[in-house]
Each structure stands twice: as structure tokens, then as C-alpha cells.
Amino acid sequence: MKRLLKDIKLIKKLLETKKVEFTINGIKGWGKKEDGEYGDVLTKFTTSCEDEITSSIYDNWHSGMNVKKFGPTCVTLYTYDMLKNKTTSKIKYEDVTIIKESYVALKK
What is the count of structural domains for the chain? Predict the structure, then answer.
């Protein structure tokens, strides 16, 4: 199911400027489910935000990627491994579900 355009714009704004926790559709890892059993659960990601500008996105294990740019439909990420090989990835805003927001009100 597609989100409304205004929801995608809100998600983009939150990811760009606020510290938020979110999940991405289809990205799962091993963890404890709500019923106490262990199995595949959605991986939680967090933005690293300084001076209202997001610089990186990381998961619970603090492995993350740096933000290259926030485009109109997705955020582009990159990282380097210890052999200086660059890896890039993209996250579509429509695949993001915000879990926890660390903000009071959005600036217009």
C-alpha cells in the first residue's frame, strides 16, 4: 500500500532534521519478538542528527552508513570498509515506518 505524498514528505523532513527511530519494510534480523519468542523481527534504525542535519543512519549494533544526500524519493547512503572499498545504498521514503520521534514540533 502506497503512502500519501504528504506522509512521504513528512518522513523525509523527519529523517533529514530529527533524531528518529524507524524500520524499513523487508529488513529483518534476529531478535526477541513481542510475545517473548526469538525469531526474525524488523531491524530498528536510528538517525544521527547534529544541528538539525542528519549525518548518518545506524542500526542497534551501531553499524551504520553516512548520508550522501536526501533526494525527492529516497535517501542515498555510503560507507567504506577497512580496505577502502565504497558501498552505497538507498532507502525509499515509502518503505520507512517511524517508530519513535525525538521532536516537539516540526518547523515550517
Answer: 1
Residue 108 in domain: no
Which residues have CB under 8 Å from 39's CB, separation 6+? 30, 31, 33
Quote the domain boundaries for residue 36.
5-101
Please state, rounded to an integer, the average pLDDT across all residues of the chain.
Answer: 87
Could you tell me if residue 106 is inside a domain? Answer: no
**pLDDT higher than threshold 60 for residue 66:** yes
- Cell 542535519 sits at which residue? 53
Are 99 and 11 spatial neighbours (Cβ–Cβ below 8 Å)?
no
pLDDT at 3: 65
DSSP calls for 47-80: EEEETTEEEEEEETTS-EEEEEEE-SSEEEEEEE
Q: Which residues contact 4 (CB under 8 A, 6 or more apart)?
A: none
pLDDT tens digits, 26-63:
999 888 898 999 999 999 999 998 888 889 999 877 68
Look at residue 63 and tell me if it is in a domain.
yes
